[in-house]
What does this fold into?
Amino acid sequence: MDGEFGGFWVTMIVAVSCITFFGGIAAIILGPIWLKERTKRSAHDLIAKALERGENIDPALMQKLTESIEVQQKSPRKTLGSAVVLLALSAAFVGSGFLDDGMLNSSDDGAFPGLILGVLGAAFLTLALVDYNTKKKEG
It folds into this structure.
């Protein structure tokens, strides 16, 4: 009986830990996006109320608001940052596979996820170098 009760609490602790961990990650990612959209919405409401009252809107303000809507291009620096993170994760997965049994031949090691992350990191690194060289020639 004690084993069943203990197993329940272990399951609950794991479930709460997972919810807390992934909820925190979601909050970190979605929080700034939500705040940015809320700011855009309040600016839109403010302009709509001003237009309803018949007030004139400064053309410079309208230009600034329409510029913020345009999609910003990713800079080579952001792409390089993504490459470094993916390559570091790749090294961590492969390293954990070596620490597990000293070899990368078992089916439960981190070699395959590490390989995928390494290839993605190399692709981002190549893209960053191409972007950097393209912007260097343009500017």
Q: What stands out?
A: Residues 73-139 form one domain. Residues 132 and 138 are 10 Å apart (CA to CA). Residues 2-52 form the longest helix (51 residues).
